[in-house]
Q: What sequence folds into this?
């Protein structure tokens, strides 16, 4: 718990330094104090996260995401600029392996951020994610592409 | 002369409010604070008045930024008189409220808001900056919005909708006027504007801006044909609130009119005639409205309108004498109208209604209260030598000097209607036999109150009645004061010198 | 063509035209949701305009407005979503 | 409205936004920003949190009624404004420390004043929005 | 002197605190005050008789030339003695008349207040002070008429009396102020020296007219007379004191007092003669037709007042002398008759002369007094009334071309008055005593002695006119006629036309009394006559006025907010348009304008569309969303035109406003369009017109040069003096920090308001 | 080099935004509009912001740009999710050619709770 | 651009007033907001607009020397915006409360306090 707190604190201080744009020790210390205060104010339960061994996976995930992003964007762009609609849209239920709030949220957001798909909602029991998608050639295939793509890679980082 | 302490009335009022906010749910502590602070406030105002009376105009340049760059506060006789009157009325209403306002309202910020309102009034009187005046006006209206709705009863809300709309409209017009004035003159300091505006070559534009100010302030001071919000709303909140409204709020508009139209825009012939016509119509509308009403507070509300006409008349005639009349009337009216609304609160506590057809028998049952209330009533009616009388003399003579016969006619008409209404009210409420009224379950009658609360309701009325007697009987003091104020207004060189220093010499 | 001209004559008009197109969706609706989505997109595009404008006027400070927009633009969307649900529940 | 996604996002957004609001407050004297905008952003942070997690959660988080910030903020502003009165100078006269402080820059009564504004704006906005949410 | 005048006020002020005392035996001590005053004024009599006058000056409002300046001369002392003398008797009379009355203390309070005011009125040299006392007598009269305030008629009469005298008073005030303004002083003695200047001034007519209205209303002259009969609702001491002997004579006093200052002109004389003669004849005829003793006396009083006005109007030395004497004559006999009426009423419970008769058998001293008074009234020798009547006829006969007409009018009046006097003073006491009155007893001496004294004086002065000639009549005359010849009054002038007229009057009056028997049927017939009486006209006017008030108030205060808004904006628009049209030439300097760019045009276009959309959308949510778009485009414009702070704030506030709206309005009703098409078009035209005016105004201001002094100062000193680089922020927290301070207070208040508006629910059970 | 980067980034950003704009008008139903716009715009704005960062070439500004992008990535999907969900709720119809609708009937009309359909597993 | 802004200002005023003249309370509030925005734009424009030169002193400079936008109107508008926000929130809540009590959005039904007899 203490470590998590410290990490969050550190992270926030760094963000502070970033947004203020003054890379000095004093500024960092000030940001640290400020975020310490904030964390004290907003004590919420955060799971223990092991940051450091996840970094490489994180980097590879980012690239994967960017690739997906651009690919899907082009697909959608084509659909947008051509007069005909090639899409076969629908809402698909995707069972979730992700469990924690953070995992589910990240997954849902990433899905939304890629063109052509959009997470609509998570069921109350957190077991499934409802996704609206533009190109559903085959429902099962679509589900497995998400599960093996985004979800697996994401879980590799967070667990 | 510079004196950083002339803003004390404002700051002390703010301090009081903040202090009261820290005692949010502790109503008795709030009561105590209100009483003590309102007395101190009167002390401060008296001190300021004395200083200015003895030493002449005092100024304060906020942040030590010389005019016209900072916000200047100016305590001349006019503003300090208004501050003093506000403090006195405020004290009366504050003390009255400790006895008359129910705890539920007190737990929702009644006292802090009341003190904010007084702060706004003090600020509006003392500021020498047109935009700052706007923000003070905003304080005043928002505080009055809150006070008029506090408790949220149906009539209150209905009245408030109109009140709020009209006041917001007035604010928008005021802001528009400031925008154009700044666009023309590039300044916000009123003294500086006085000089700048005089130099603008395009007089047509100046006249147009003057119209905007006239209407903006006119709505706030409830002149014809801009007064509608007043009779629609003033009778709806608890009496203590009506008292501060009736006594002080419309007078800020009048103050602003007097200030702006003597300092920045000197009325040309058209505007002067317009003001006269408006004054006549205001007197007429208020008087006619008053004779029809049966609710005591509505009668007083219409009479407010009627008497605003008198003050406007002074400005319309635009001579030192006439303005002196307007000032005298203003001084009298603040004290008396406040008192009458307080008295109506007392009557409500005694009888549980304010409908003059249902009321009756007060003189028989409460002779001392009746005589007490008779003082403000007959002062208002202008029975000489009570306070309402004097101003008329000056206004009438002022009217003669400028050959405003129609205006004199309307002043007579307005005085007559007032007299008639007050006499009728006296006859109905005090003379007529009492009718058995059903006991209202949600009213705590006067005799059921604790002695502290009873005294808290009666003492302010005595105090204000005494003040109005003083104004009437020691009229000399007030006349000398009004004369000096009028002279300062008509010839603002002293004001300009005090604010701008050497700058006013070399425009 | 300098970078300034490029941004001024190509990018900014493109963004402006985008805004106009999005505004059309706002106007035609048909549902409130459509308008809300359009509004959201308008704001987002606005961030782009601000970014370009900050380059043009050489005022990096303008980026802070973009930052504020990015942070709270979605609050409007959230509020409307909130409204839609509430209204649904009350009906 | 308490969806999982929104809730989680809000948990991260809250400290970010508040941090950002302080940043906006502090640099107001040099670049666009200041007490108002800072206060508005901070309160928006809490509003988002309350939308996502429900009002009770947010209230628990703040631990006191946001209305309390109003007199506190007013007090700070008033004191920083009225302090010069004690040395016979006008209200709102700027009093400054001799040397600049790192990060913040010059510290003076104006900064405290702005901080008062910041607190008041938070208190006001939250009081309004929370009260409305409570009485819906 | 000031003490003498104000002592009445002091006593009045004390009454609430010594009420127990007054209600007990203490009332017997009260007449000491008027009596003391009487003695005090009496002590001046000798010197005044010798032609001296006394002046007393006390500062009050020196800066406006208003003071307690008292001037004691013949006219003043006549009235002062009347006031204090009759006052003493009335005070005494009251001790019995209202004995044990629950509100005796109040009664004495008002009475003393009245006495003091009346004294102040007649003694004041300063015309404003005079007016103040004048109004105070009206107010005391209001309280006294309404003394029996359980009776609605009593209240109505009090209101009516106050309306008439109050309105008259206001005109008088206007007249006084005008007079003071023209004459350059409020001091009567100083004005007197300006007499010719004033008379030749163009405003002379106004002055006289205004003062006349004041005097006529107070002294119940036609057509303002009708409040006086109503005022008889007051207890009898009041009728005696105020409404016959003193207050109603205030108008006469005023006219007499102003005669040397304003009199002598054709306007002055003609008006007074006309009004006076109409009043005297009209009221005299009326008095004949009444059956209520008080009614009879009321009308005969009006008639007598008419005579006085008439006499003053004649303006000759003879007529003024007659007036001076008649004031005293009338006071003596009329007061007596009123007091007697009170006794009769008090004892028998009725004042109906058709019922009353034979009372002399039980109320002998009263009957004597009544008889004396009736005879004096009749002008029978050797009563003082005879002298009075003689003087009147002398005056009319000497009045040039109109002598005949005027004399006939005087005779008719006197005949009627004589009849009335007999009816009230003789009829109740002669004849057979009805059985139900046999058990009557003579009241307490304090009641019957005062009328006896008054009536007795009427006889004494008649027998020995020299008693009053030098001491009173001469000084009174000198007050009205400066440099007049010395007067000489006597009972017997020898056989002449005047004597003939007097005898004729007597004979006719007695004959009339023999023939005409008062009856209620006759009286009710006269009531039909009232249809065209001034009172009816006044009431019709009142109704019309009320209807007008209702119309006017309903027209403006009609309850519809949008009508209020449209009135206000219409007013503003008309004025703006007129002023713009009058003084502004439209001119646009295109060189000063900034260039257009596509992104600005698009943003502006969007803004315009958003505004239009906001206005015409049929869903309020869409309107709110459009409002959001509009705010957002404003934000962009702020950004483009170098206002990043504004853009930030506008954006944040805009978002919050949208949230607020959304939170609040989801449960509001359907967003209906209530107005008809015509109304919408009307509103549309007004709005567009107003918008255009603002636009034109803006354009016009834009082409004016702007003074940038302030902005340059800020730009130069923001960093150097205020240590900040964002000038806008420096202005907000430093240069104009006070604004900000106030502004956050506004926010705090708004928040508290929202809090209380939503959370505070007054429980109906909780007591207020 | 920096200039070229600015050209490329700003152009591609503007193009994506334009795409989103066209998309929002052209797409036949609300969900598709959300789908198209949220990301295209996010990407486009991200690119433009990056171009600004390149232009100013200052660490402080770059850091700020990164912060904005992170904020957007955090908020944009949440907004899309919220409005999409609310729209479904209030009965905004899907395009008539849509293939599947797994969400149908899963919302509890009263409590607004969403079932997974797998509660018993 | 000034000309377009002038048109916009006129339009804001006109539409604000038009909305205030409707009978619906919500429209009334919207009208007031429009009017307020109109006034703000008016101050802004009449302070004379300058493109792309915010009144912020460069980090290396000590004062503004070249052409810059007038900071005074900006400060005024800022104050006005914030004040309007306070007033508008209050007005919005007032309308809500009024509706709750009277169950109508129609302003014409809120006229009992103007009646002569009550
Ligand atoms: Na996607
Ligand atoms: Na400000």
A:
């Amino acid at each position: 718990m203490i470590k998590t707190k410290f990490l969050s604190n550190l992270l926030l201080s760094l963000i502070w330094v970033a947004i203020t744009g003054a890379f000095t020790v004093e500024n960092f210390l000030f940001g640290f104090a400020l975020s310490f205060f904030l964390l004290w104010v907003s004590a919420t339960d955060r799971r223990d996260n092991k940051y450091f061994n996840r970094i490489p996976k994180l980097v590879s995930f980012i690239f994967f995401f960017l690739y997906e992003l651009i690919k899907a964007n082009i697909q959608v762009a084509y659909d947008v600029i051509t007069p005909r609609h090639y899409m076969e849209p629908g809402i698909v239920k995707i069972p979730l392996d992700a469990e924690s709030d953070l995992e589910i949220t990240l997954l849902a957001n990433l899905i939304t951020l890629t063109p052509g798909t959009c997470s609509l909602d998570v069921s109350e029991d957190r077991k499934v994610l409802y996704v609206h998608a533009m190109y559903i050639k085959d429902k099962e295939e679509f589900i497995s592409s998400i599960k093996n793509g985004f979800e697996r890679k994401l879980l590799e980082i967070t667990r | 002369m510079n004196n950083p302490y002339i803003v004390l009335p404002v700051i002390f009022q703010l301090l009081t409010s903040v202090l009261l906010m820290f005692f949010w749910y502790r109503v008795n502590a709030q009561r105590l604070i209100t009483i003590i602070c309102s007395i101190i406030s009167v002390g401060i105002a008296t001190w300021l008045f004395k200083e200015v009376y003895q030493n002449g105009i005092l100024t304060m340049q906020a942040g030590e930024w010389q005019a016209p760059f900072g916000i200047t506060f100016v305590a001349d006789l006019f503003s300090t008189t208004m501050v003093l009157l506000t403090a006195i009325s405020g004290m009366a209403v504050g003390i009255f409220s400790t006895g008359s306002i129910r705890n539920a309202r007190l737990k929702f910020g009644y006292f802090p808001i009341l003190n904010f309102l007084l702060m706004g009034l003090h600020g509006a009187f003392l500021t020498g900056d047109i935009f700052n005046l706007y923000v003070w006006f905003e304080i005043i209206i928002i505080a009055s919005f809150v006070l008029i709705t506090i408790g949220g009863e149906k009539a209150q809300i209905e009245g408030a909708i109109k009140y709020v709309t009209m006041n917001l409209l007035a604010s928008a017009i005021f802001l528009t006027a400031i925008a154009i004035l700044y666009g023309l003159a590039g300044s916000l300091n009123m003294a500086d504007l006085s000089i700048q505006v005089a130099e603008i070559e395009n007089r047509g534009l100046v006249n147009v801006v003057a119209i905007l100010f006239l209407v903006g302030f006119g709505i706030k001071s409830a002149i014809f044909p801009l007064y509608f919000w007043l009779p629609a709303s003033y009778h709806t909140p608890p009496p203590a609130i009506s008292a501060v409204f009736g006594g002080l709020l419309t007078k800020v508009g009048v103050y602003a009119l007097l200030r702006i139209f003597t300092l920045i825009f000197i009325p040309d012939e058209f505007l002067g005639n317009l003001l006269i016509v408006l004054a006549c119509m205001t007197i007429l509308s208020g008087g006619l409205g008053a004779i029809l009403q049966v609710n005591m507070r509505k009668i007083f509300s219409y009479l407010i309108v009627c008497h605003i006409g008198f003050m406007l008349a002074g400005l319309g005639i635009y001579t030192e004498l006439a303005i002196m009349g307007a000032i005298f009337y203003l001084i009298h009216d603040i004290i008396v109208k406040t008192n009458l609304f307080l008295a109506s609160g007392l009557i409500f506590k005694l009888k549980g209604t304010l409908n003059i057809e249902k009321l009756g028998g007060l003189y028989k049952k409460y002779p001392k209260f009746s005589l007490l209330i008779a003082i403000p009533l007959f002062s208002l009616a202008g029975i000489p030598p009570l306070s309402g009388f004097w101003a008329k003399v000056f206004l009438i003579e002022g009217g003669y000097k400028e050959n405003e016969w129609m205006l004199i006619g309307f002043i007579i008409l307005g005085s007559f209607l007032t007299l008639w209404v007050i006499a009728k009210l006296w006859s109905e409420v005090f003379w007529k036999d009492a009718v058995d009224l059903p006991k209202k379950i949600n009213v705590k009658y006067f005799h059921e109150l604790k002695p502290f609360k009873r005294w808290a309701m009666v003492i302010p009325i005595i105090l204000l009645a005494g003040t109005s007697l003083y104004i009437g009987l020691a009229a000399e003091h007030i006349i000398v004061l009004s004369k000096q104020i009028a002279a300062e207004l008509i010839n603002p060189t002293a004001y300009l010198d005090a604010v701008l220093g050497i700058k006013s010499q070399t425009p | 063509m300098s970078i300034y001209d490029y941004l001024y004559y190509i990018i900014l008009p493109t963004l402006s035209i985008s805004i106009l197109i999005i505004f059309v969706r706002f106007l035609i609706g048909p549902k409130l949701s459509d308008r809300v989505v359009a509004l959201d997109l308008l704001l987002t595009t606005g961030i782009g305009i601000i970014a370009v404008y900050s380059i043009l006027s050489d005022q990096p400070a303008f980026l802070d407005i973009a930052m504020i927009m990015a942070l709270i633009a979605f609050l409007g969307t959230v509020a409307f979503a909130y409204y839609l649900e509430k209204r649904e529940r009350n009906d | 409205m308490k969806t999982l996604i929104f809730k989680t996002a809000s948990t991260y957004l809250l400290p970010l936004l508040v941090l950002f609001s302080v940043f906006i407050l502090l640099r107001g004297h040099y670049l666009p920003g200041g007490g108002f905008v800072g206060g508005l952003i901070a309160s928006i942070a809490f509003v988002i949190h309350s939308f996502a997690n429900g009002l009770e959660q947010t209230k628990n988080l703040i631990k006191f009624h946001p209305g309390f910030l109003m007199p506190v903020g007013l007090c700070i502003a008033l004191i920083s404004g009225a302090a010069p009165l004690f040395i016979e100078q006008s209200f709102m006269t700027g009093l400054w420390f001799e040397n600049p402080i790192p990060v913040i820059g010059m510290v003076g009564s104006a900064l405290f004043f702005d901080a008062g504004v910041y607190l008041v704006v938070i208190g006001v906005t939250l009081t309004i929005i929370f009260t409305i949410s409570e009485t819906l | 002197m000031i003490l003498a005048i104000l002592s009445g006020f002091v006593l009045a002020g004390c009454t609430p605190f010594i009420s127990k005392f007054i209600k007990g035996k203490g009332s017997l001590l009260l007449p000491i005050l008027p009596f003391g005053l009487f003695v005090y004024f009496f002590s001046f009599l000798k010197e005044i008789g010798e032609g001296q006058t006394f002046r007393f000056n006390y500062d009050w409002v020196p800066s406006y030339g208003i003071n307690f300046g008292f001037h004691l001369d013949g006219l003043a002392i006549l009235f002062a003695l009347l006031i204090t003398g009759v006052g003493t008797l009335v005070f005494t009379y009251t001790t019995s008349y209202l004995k044990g009355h629950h509100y005796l203390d109040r009664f004495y309070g008002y009475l003393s207040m009245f006495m003091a005011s009346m004294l102040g009125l007649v003694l004041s040299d300063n015309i404003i002070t005079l007016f103040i006392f004048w109004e105070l007598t009206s107010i005391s009269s209001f309280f006294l008429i309404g003394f029996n305030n359980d009776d609605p008629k009593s209240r109505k009469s009090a209101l009516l009396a106050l309306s008439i005298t109050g309105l008259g008073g206001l005109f008088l005030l206007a007249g006084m102020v005008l007079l003071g303004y023209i004459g350059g002083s409020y001091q009567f003695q100083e004005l007197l020296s300006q007499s010719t200047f004033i008379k030749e001034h163009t405003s002379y007519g106004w002055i006289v007219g205004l003062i006349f209205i004041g005097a006529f209303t107070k002294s119940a002259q036609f057509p303002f007379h009708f409040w006086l009969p109503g005022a008889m609702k007051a207890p009898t001491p009041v009728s005696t004191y105020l409404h016959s002997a003193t207050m109603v004579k205030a108008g006469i006093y005023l006219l007499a007092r102003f005669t040397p200052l304003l009199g002598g002109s054709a306007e002055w004389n003609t008006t007074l003669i006309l009004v006076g003669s109409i009043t005297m004849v009209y009221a005299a005829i009326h008095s004949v037709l009444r059956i209520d003793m008080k009614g009879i006396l009321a009308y005969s009083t009006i008639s007598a007042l008419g005579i006085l006005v008439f006499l003053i109007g004649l303006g000759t030395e003879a007529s003024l002398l007659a007036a001076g004497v008649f004031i005293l004559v009338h006071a003596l006999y009329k007061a007596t008759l009123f007091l007697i009426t009170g006794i009769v009423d008090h004892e028998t419970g009725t004042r109906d002369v058709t019922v009353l008769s034979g009372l002399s058998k039980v109320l002998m001293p009263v009957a004597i007094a009544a008889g004396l008074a009736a005879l004096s009234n009749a002008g029978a020798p050797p009563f003082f009334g005879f002298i009075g009547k003689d003087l009147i006829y002398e005056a009319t006969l000497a009045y040039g071309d109109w002598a005949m007409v005027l004399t006939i009018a005087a005779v008719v009046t006197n005949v009627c008055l004589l009849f009335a006097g007999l009816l009230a003073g003789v009829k109740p006491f002669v004849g057979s005593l009805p059985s139900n009155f046999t058990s009557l007893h003579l009241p307490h001496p304090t009641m019957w002695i005062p009328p006896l004294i008054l009536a007795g004086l009427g006889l004494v002065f008649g027998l020995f006119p020299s008693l009053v000639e030098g001491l009173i009549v001469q000084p009174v005359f000198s007050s009205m006629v400066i440099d007049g010849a010395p007067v000489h009054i006597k009972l017997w002038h020898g056989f002449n036309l005047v004597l003939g007229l007097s005898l004729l009057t007597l004979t006719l009056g007695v004959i009339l009394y023999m023939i005409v028997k008062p009856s209620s049927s006759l009286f009710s017939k006269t009531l039909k006559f009232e249809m065209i009486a001034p009172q009816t006209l006044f009431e019709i006017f009142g109704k019309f006025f009320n209807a007008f008030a209702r119309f006017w108030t309903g027209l403006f205060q009609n309850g519809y907010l949008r009508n209020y808004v449209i009135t206000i904006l219409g007013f503003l628009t008309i004025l703006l348009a007129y002023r713009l049209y009058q003084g502004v030439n439209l001119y646009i300097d295109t060189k000063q304008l900034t260039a257009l760019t596509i992104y600005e045009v698009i943003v502006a276009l969007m803004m315009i569309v958003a505004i239009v959309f906001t206005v015409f959308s049929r869903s309020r949510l869409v309107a709110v969303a459009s409002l959001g778009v509009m705010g957002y485009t404003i934000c962009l414009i702020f950004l483009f035109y170098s206002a990043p702070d504004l853009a930030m704030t506008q954006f944040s506030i805009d978002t919050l406003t949208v949230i607020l709206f959304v939170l609040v309005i989801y449960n509001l009703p359907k967003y209906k369009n209530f107005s008809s098409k015509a109304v919408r078009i009307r509103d549309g035209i007004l709005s567009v017109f107003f918008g255009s005016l603002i636009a034109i105004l803006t354009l016009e201001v834009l082409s004016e040069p702007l003074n940038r002094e302030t902005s340059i100062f800020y730009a130069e000193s923001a960093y150097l003096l205020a240590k900040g680089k964002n000038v806008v922020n420096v202005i907000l927290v430093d240069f104009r920090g006070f604004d900000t301070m106030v502004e956050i207070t506004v926010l705090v208040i708004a928040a508290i308001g929202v809090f209380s508006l939503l959370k505070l629910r007054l429980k109906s059970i909780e007591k207020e | 080099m920096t200039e070229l980067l600015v050209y490329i980034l700003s152009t591609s950003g503007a193009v994506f935004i334009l795409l989103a704009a066209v998309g929002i008008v052209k797409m036949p139903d609300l969900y598709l509009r959300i789908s198209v716009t949220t990301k295209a715009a996010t990407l486009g704005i991200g690119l433009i912001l990056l171009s600004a960062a390149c232009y100013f070439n200052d660490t402080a500004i770059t850091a700020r740009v990164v912060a904005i992008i992170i904020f957007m990535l955090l908020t944009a999907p949440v907004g899309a999710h919220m409005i999409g969900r609310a729209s479904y709720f209030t009965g905004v119809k899907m395009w008539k050619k849509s293939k599947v609708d797994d969400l149908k009937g899963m919302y509890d009309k009263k409590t607004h709770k969403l079932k997974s359909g797998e509660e018993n597993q | 651009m000034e000309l377009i802004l002038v048109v916009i200002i006129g339009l804001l005023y006109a539409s604000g007033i038009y909305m205030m003249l409707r009978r619906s309370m919500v429209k009334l509030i919207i009208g007031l907001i429009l009017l307020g925005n109109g006034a703000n734009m008016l101050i802004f424009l009449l302070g004379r607009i300058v493109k792309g030169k915010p009144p912020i002193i460069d980090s290396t400079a000590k004062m503004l020397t070249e052409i810059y936008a007038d900071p005074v109107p900006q400060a005024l508008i800022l104050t006005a915006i914030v004040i309007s926000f306070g007033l508008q929130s209050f007005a919005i809540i007032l309308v809500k409360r009024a509706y709750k009590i009277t169950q109508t959005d129609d302003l014409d039904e809120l006229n009992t306090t103007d009646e002569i007899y009550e």
Notes: The interface with chain B takes residues 67, 70-71, 74-75, 78, 82, 84-85, 88-94 of chain D (CB under 8 Å). The radius of gyration of chain D is 17 Å.
